[in-house]
């Protein structure tokens, strides 16, 4: 069995044949895959959100379905319906597009709250209930949702309960100049997605998901995670802090990030690297802070600088013999 680092390298290398210059973002999607989590991609149109989802699905040989969320979309258009079969004289279930291993929920905030809620059970419990009958979803089951952060007309903001179900939130952003030139070269004759092949078996991914759960997390690291999440609940600019699900998300994501780096233990830098994508979308900024233009990402970065890293000792000022002050390490 290959290590998680080897599997990750193969998937990332394959996806980067299509997605240019976005290595960190591809790794974050892979973290979600390893944690059986979901991803919210918040960005403007045309930067490769759909292509990223398709590339990931093809790289690991997963079934892929796309749901285009619109205001007239119904919950049954997502989950499926029960239809009466006259020959069998009974109802039979016709699966909706959510019954797939990787589901792209495109422009998820354009659907009504009623339709958005059709994904809540699927994202949390990997199952859907139609007409009182529960249907299990395939494994792995990952939702990659996209939304446009600029155009708000005709949209319905995602409720906190749904935002909290996304393991990470990320933005692809515009490519650099050299990366954009490379994109033009790669698509001169055909889109590289057309020739993208599977590089990892679904069974290997499932085994990697099990291995991630064995990554060691020191009790001090666990305390650090809880301290970071607790700081979001006490920050002056935050109206509502992250829930315990946020602690679990950061804990699991840090384990997957460490495994991708080739380690079987988590270090504080793993937690720092994942804090913003795992926590920023789970907090509600206070109205006063929003008026000042303060973003949740900025607050999380501020919290990272204020919460002590495990094992670090604070520098305390001590008087010099001459009457001045010098700094020494305190206990």
Structural write-up:
The chain is globular, with a radius of gyration of 22 Å. The chain is built from 14 helices and 13 strands. The protein is α/β, with parallel strands linked by helices. The model is unreliable at 322-331 (pLDDT under 50). It has 2 domains: 1-201, P-loop containing nucleotide triphosphate hydrolases (Rossmann fold); 214-309, Magnesium chelatase subunit I, C-Terminal domain (Helicase, Ruva Protein, domain 3), CATH 1.10.8.80. The relative contact order is 0.14. β12 and β13 (325-329) form a beta hairpin. Strands 2-5-8-1-9 form a 5-stranded parallel β-sheet. A two-stranded antiparallel sheet has the order 3-4.
Structural features:
single chain, 331 residues, alpha/beta, Rossmann fold, Helicase, Ruva Protein, domain 3, 2 domains, 5-stranded parallel β-sheet, two-stranded antiparallel sheet, 14 helices, 13 strands, 18% strand, globular
- Give the CATH architecture of the largest domain: 3-Layer(aba) Sandwich
CATH topology of the largest domain: Rossmann fold
The main sheet orders its strands as 2-5-8-1-9
For the terminal residues, how far apart are their CA atoms? 45 Å
As residue ranges, the low-confidence spans are 322-331
Cα shape: globular
Please provide a brief summary of the model.
This protein has two domains: 1-201, 3-Layer(aba) Sandwich (Rossmann fold), CATH 3.40.50; 214-309, Orthogonal Bundle (Helicase, Ruva Protein, domain 3). It contains 14 helices and 13 strands.
SSE order and pairing:
Layout: H1 4-15, H2 23-34, E1 39-42, H3 49-60, E2 64-68, H4 75-79, E3 80-85, E4 90-95, E5 102-106, H5 113-116, H6 120-125, E6 127-130, E7 133-136, E8 142-147, H7 160-163, E9 168-170, H8 177-186, H9 202-212, H10 219-234, E10 238-240, H11 244-260, H12 268-279, E11 284-285, H13 287-291, H14 296-306, E12 315-319, E13 325-329
Parallel strand pairs: 1-8, 1-9, 2-5, 5-8
Antiparallel strand pairs: 3-4, 6-7, 10-11, 12-13
Helix pairs in contact: 1-2, 2-11, 10-11, 10-12, 11-12, 12-14
């Amino acid at each position: 069995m290959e290590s998680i680092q080897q599997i990750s390298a193969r998937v990332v290398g394959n996806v980067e044949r299509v997605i240019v210059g976005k290595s960190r973002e591809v790794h974050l999607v892979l973290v979600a895959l390893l944690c059986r989590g979901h991803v919210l991609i918040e960005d403007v149109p045309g930067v490769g959100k759909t292509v990223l989802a398709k590339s990931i699905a093809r790289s690991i040989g997963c079934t892929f379905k796309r749901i285009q969320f619109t205001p007239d979309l119904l919950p049954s258009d997502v989950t499926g319906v029960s239809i009466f079969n006259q020959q069998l004289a009974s109802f039979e279930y016709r699966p909706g597009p959510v019954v797939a291993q990787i589901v792209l929920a495109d422009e998820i905030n354009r659907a009504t709250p009623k339709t958005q809620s059709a994904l809540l059970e699927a994202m949390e419990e990997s199952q859907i209930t139609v007409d009182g009958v529960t249907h299990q979803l395939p494994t792995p089951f990952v939702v990659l949702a996209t939304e446009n952060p600029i155009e708000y007309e005709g949209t319905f903001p995602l409720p906190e309960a749904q935002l909290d179900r996304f393991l990470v939130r990320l933005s692809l952003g515009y490519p650099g100049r050299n990366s954009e030139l490379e994109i033009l070269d790669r698509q001169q004759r055909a889109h590289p997605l057309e020739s993208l092949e599977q590089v990892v078996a679904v069974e290997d991914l499932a085994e990697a998901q099990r291995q991630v759960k064995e990554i060691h997390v020191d009790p001090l690291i666990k305390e650090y995670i809880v301290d970071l999440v607790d700081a979001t609940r006490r920050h002056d600019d935050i109206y509502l802090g992250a829930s315990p699900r946020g602690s679990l998300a950061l804990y699991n994501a840090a384990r997957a990030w460490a495994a991708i780096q080739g380690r079987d233990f988590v270090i504080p830098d793993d937690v720092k690297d994942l804090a913003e994508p795992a926590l920023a979308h789970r907090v509600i900024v206070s109205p006063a802070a929003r008026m000042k233009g303060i973003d949740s990402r900025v607050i999380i970065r501020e919290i990272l600088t204020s919460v002590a890293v495990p094992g670090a000792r604070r520098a305390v000022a001590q008087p010099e013999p001459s009457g001045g002050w010098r700094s020494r390490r305190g206990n």
